[in-house]
Each structure stands twice: as structure tokens, then as C-alpha cells.
Write a structure and sequence with these properties.
Elements (H helix, E strand, L loop, with lengths): L19 H14 L11 H9 L11 H16 L4
């Protein structure tokens, strides 16, 4: 009788869960390797209004943190130049 060998793609141990602190540290190290910094920035409503007037932010996105972040990056690129 012929026996067929099982094909294994590696160990069958379950993946180890990472703590929240480990995930934050991993993200910090990845940003550092890319030359990035993570900062918390508070904006005044008047500053958000300026981003809208300059055409960097759509008026209906004034409460969207991701859209505001994109608008700030666009502002930095215009005023500071793009990173190389």
C-alpha cells in the first residue's frame, strides 16, 4: 500500500497576538525608518476655513480628520516643498 505524505506549509502553531503597545512601537519604528514623525496638532476653526478658501479642503469635509490631514500635507508641500 502506498502512503501519501501530508504537505505542510510550516508549523501549525497559532499566531501570537501582539499587544497594543507592541503595535504602536512597530508603527513608530516604521515611521522613523521613513523619516516621518507622528504629531498631534490642534487647529482653530479659522485655520480650517483658510484651508477651504485655498481650495485644499472641501467645505463638506471640514469635520473629516483624514481630509484635514490631507489638506495640511498639501499645504506643507506648497509652502515647504515636497520631501525628497
Amino acid at each position: 500500500m502506498l502512503e501519501q505524505a501530508e504537505i505542510s506549509s510550516g508549523p501549525t502553531t497559532p499566531p501570537i497576538a501582539c499587544s497594543a503597545a507592541a503595535r504602536r512601537m512597530r508603527a513608530h519604528r516604521q515611521r522613523r525608518r521613513k523619516g516621518l514623525r507622528c504629531l498631534r496638532v490642534e487647529l482653530r476653526e479659522t485655520e480650517v476655513d483658510v484651508l477651504i478658501r485655498k481650495g485644499l479642503l472641501k467645505p463638506d469635509a471640514r469635520n473629516d480628520p483624514n481630509a484635514i490631514c490631507d489638506a495640511l500635507h498639501a499645504h506643507f508641500d506648497r509652502t515647504l516643498g515636497t520631501a525628497k
